[in-house]
Amino acid sequence: MSLMSEYINKVFPHEGVFEIILGTAGISENLAPIGLIRHGDDFFSKIFKNTLTYANLKVKKSCIVNISLDPKTFYILLFNSHVINKVEIVKREYDNIPYLENSLSILSECIEIENKDNFSIFKYNFIKLLNNGTDYRAFSRGDALLIDLLVHITRLDIFSEEELAKYSSIIEYEIKTIARLSPDKLDIVRDLIERINAKGLKISL
Ligand SMILES: Cc1cc2nc3c(=O)[nH]c(=O)nc-3n(C[C@H](O)[C@H](O)[C@H](O)COP(=O)(O)O)c2cc1C
Fold it and tell me: Which parts pass through the membrane (predicted)?
């Protein structure tokens, strides 16, 4: 295994979906939150065609994958990108492509391999590490939801019937989403379904 793929395994440690900040250029430089899908040792993103990210990638196939665990960074880049450089989010550039100064940033090729009506699938070909950050592991929404689910399970015994009815749909959503985004946790999910259903709920995968 090359040093790069060993590194990539640490950043994206399981199958499923991670959330990253993708830097693109081409038409105009842009940083946007994007889901990155790991399937075996291959990495993809599904990019909607109504985004600047898509338009950029059609013109310039290089991109920069930025790793952050900070939800505020995701929020600012989604809705308030005009404040970049005025807050703790500082933008740098490599080959005209933007990346985040405090993030682990990986230069990559981003090749369109499937073209659908509303979106395309792009495949990553990681090239080199550009920048070291404080977070070296990508954000996994599935793993985060698993913690939330564990909290809900500890409360099953003290929920009123009304609360139980309300939370069972949340619990079911979390179970299904964890299974999809963090399939490496399926054994845990199955065990938790048994524990939840032993309390009288009827949750299935
Ligand atoms: C955590 C997160 C993950 C996202 N994943 C994707 C994705 O995988 N593909 C996509 O096209 N949009 C995704 N989005 C939505 C884009 O970030 C959003 O459409 C953004 O406005 C696109 O920006 P752009 O037009 O500047 O490229 C995601 C948003 C968030 C907050």
Answer: none
Task: Dump pLDDT digits (tens) for 41-95.
Answer: 999 999 999 999 999 999 999 999 999 999 999 999 999 877 777 777 899 999 9
Query: Which of 148, 157, 166, 140 has the alpha carbon at shortest distance from 199?
Result: 157
Helices and strands of the chain, counted as H and E runs: 6, 8
Instruction: Give the residue among 141, 201, 144, 139 at the shortest CA–CA distance from 171.
Output: 201
- For the CA of 19, the nearest atom of ligand 1: 1
What separation in Å is there between the alpha carbon of 4 and the centre of ligand 1?
26
The CB of 20 under 6 Å from ligand 1? The reply is: no
The pTM of this model reads 0.95
Measured in angstroms, how far is the CA atom of residue 20 from the centroid of ligand 1? 10
Is 151 in contact with 25 (CB distance < 8 Å)? no
| CA 108–ligand 1 middle distance (angstroms) | 18
Q: Whose CA is nearest to atom 17 of ligand 1?
A: 33
Instruction: Looking at the CA of residue 47, tell me the nearest atom of ligand 1.
Output: 11
Helix axes of 186-197 and 161-181: crossing angle, nearest 10 degrees: 160
Closest by Cα among 96, 94, 123 to 107? 94
Q: Are 156 and 164 in contact (CB under 8 A)?
A: yes
Q: How many whole angstroms from 139 Cα to the centroid of ligand 1?
A: 15
Domains of the chain, start order: 3-131 (2.30.110.10), 141-197 (no CATH)
